Amino acid sequence: MKNTVLILLSLFFFFSCAGNQKVDEQRELAPIPHLEKRGDVTQLIVEGKPYLALAMELTNSAASSREYMKPYWPQLKESGVNTVLAVVSWEMIEPEEGKFDFKVVDELIEDARANDLKLALLWFGSWKNGYTSYTPKWVKKDTGRFPLALTKDGKQLSIMTTLSQTSWEADAKAYGELMKHIAQVDREEQTVVMMQVNNEVGLHGYTRDYHPEAVKAFNGPVPQALIDYLVKNKEQLLPETRAAWEKQGCKTSGTWEEVFGKGDYTDEMFMAWNYGHYMNAIAQAGKDVHPIPTFVNAWIVQPEDKHPGNYPAGGPQAQNHDIWRAAAPAIDILSPDIYLPDYPTIIQMYARAGNPVFVPESRAGQGGAANAAYTIGQMGGIGYSPFGVERSIASPANETFCKFYQLAGSVADLILEAQAKGTISATWVKALDPTRLKDEVVMGDYKLVYELVSSGQRKGGAPQRLGGTYAPDAQGYAIAIQLADDTFLFLGSNIRVQFLPADGKGVVGLAKTTEGRFENGEWIEGRWLNGDDIQLRYDLLPAADEGFSGQGLDFDKPTPKFLKVELYKY
After folding, report:
1. Do 30 and 360 touch, CB atoms closer than 8 A?
2. Band (17; pLDDT cuts 50, 70, 90)
3. Hey, do 53-147+160-205+269-410 and 427-569 end up sharing a CATH topology, with the first three levels equal?
């Protein structure tokens, strides 16, 4: 009997251990965060399913102090943010060469988890905003080992040169150790979902670096890897790249000036190659141990900029994307930091040639809500992130922005599904831009006609709720999701919507219009709207001449809301 008990216990422990081993193996096989093409868009996959990053980037020094961040974590969560972009700097994790301290990383991960938030960590290594300021003291003080870029007359800039192998090897080693640590502490929970490598890199002041190694490389042959990329992708090259190459006869060998000609853009392409090559080494060191998605961000060209160097030359600006793709295949997304007013035009430039859409820095407020809606609704974006608003996220100025994040978060799965199916669109209208007071988008059999909410009336005729004057700071937006052939869900603010048949035949009416909200992914119907709530025009004869029924959707306040509408034709 005693032997039987021992045998049974042995079998119990054997199968228990085998079961635990099987669970561990399943955990190891669970996919880490990655990018995946779904339909015509690229989406971020977290914990095995698509993820919409309703993000916010902390101010540069915020994440260095747990005490500083303590009151802000719950405010961020309450605001509708689900992802926080936070800095981890080289100087903090490797204060002495070869000795690593990941205390700040562990605290960030712990606090994010405690508030049910995800993280995208920003690696401030060799450069931040183009300058070298977040390197450890032992790097800063040794410009012999870690040389700086030079002006044409030999003056040192406070910018590490891209042509130093010692420098990129040291940066890559530190970043690799960081990613190894993240893999160890976060492989299962997947709190850290993306990484940014350095910040707004590029050379200030000059079109190119005049360090002796840089001069030697510029006067040497164009790297074969870049030539091969140009040849292989000739028909798909961006117009800027193709024009520069074609004007010299599409040469497949020679110096930079022989292949691309003399001029600022050749200098810029040279710097783009070297920044991309340097950054690729860092990104690859991380991917070798924990290959989650990696992005870089661009200080974009400003209207007053006359040539590269006015903005950081050679960064991942839109005109340099071909060079960066050739030099840095380990980097997944080339992202713009957008603070300029014409947001749609800029983001479209950065989405060319299949570049996934993610905006790590922009504005909050009502304008930021419009930007975010356009990013995820029209551009199929992975996410959007205003910069540095942890101290003001709970202020009245950000009330409409937070409300948009809260509503978008409640319907995130539907947005992501619609992105993949191509059944989503968005509009962005603004009073300060006369060309963007109105917009039209075709979805299925319908044309959606948008107009910014006005503060006045059309001259003459019966009173209208369309046209007229606009508040100087008025900004409106709407996301439209086609739920069925004749049924649409809108998330909108400061905007009105009328409908026309896409083929121009007949008139479109509103069969049923309802307010509502989403709880646990389910639509909870509110008021049925009719009468004055959907009658946007009372001048029915002019409306009929223009093909309109006079009815439409009214998002008459900055505070966003959902409206669901079923259409019919007559």
Report:
1. no
2. low
3. no
Was domain 53-147+160-205+269-410 assigned CATH 3.40.50.720?
no
- Amino acid at position 67, single letter: E
Compute the Cα dihedral for 38, 39, 43, 47 and give only its sign: negative
Burial 274-299 (b: 16+ CB within 10 A, else e): bbbbbbbbbbbbbbebbbbbbbbbbb
β-bridge pairing 83-89 and 53-57: parallel
Q: Is 107 left (phi over 0), alpha (psi -120 to 50) or beta?
A: alpha
pLDDT at residue 452, rounded to an integer: 92
Q: Token pair 């040192």 is at which residue?
A: 156
Report the alpha-carbon distance of residue 194 to residue 356 in Å, rounded.
13
CB 323 within 8 A of CB 153: no
How many other C-beta atoms are found inside a 10 Å radius of the C-beta of residue 89?
22
**What is the fold, at CATH topology level, of the domain defined by 427-569?**
Chondroitinase Ac; Chain A, domain 3 (2.60.220)
Q: Strands 53-57 and 383-384: what pairing?
A: parallel
Nearest alpha-carbon partner for 349 in 361, 370, 335: 335
CA 445, chain centre distance (Å): 31
21 pLDDT higher than 50: no
Distance CA 506, CA 415 (A): 30
Six-digit token pair at 71?
């009151």
What is the domain partition of the chain in residue ranges? 53-147+160-205+269-410, 427-569
For the beta sheet containing 83-89, the strands, ordered from the edge strand earlier in sequence to the opposite edge, are 333-337, 294-299, 192-199, 118-128, 83-89, 53-57, 383-384, 358-359
The token duo for 73 is: 């974590």
In tens, the pLDDT along 435-462 reads: 999 999 999 999 999 999 876 544 444 4
**Per the structure block, which two tokens stand in for 155?**
């003056």
pLDDT tens sequence across 132-177: 999 999 999 999 999 999 999 999 999 999 999 999 999 999 999 9
> What's the pTM?
0.93
Give the C-alpha distances (Å, rounded to integers) separating 323 from 108, 216, 287, 506: 34, 19, 21, 50
Query: Chain centroid to CA 126: how far?
Result: 22
506 contacts 565 by C-beta, under 8 angstroms? no
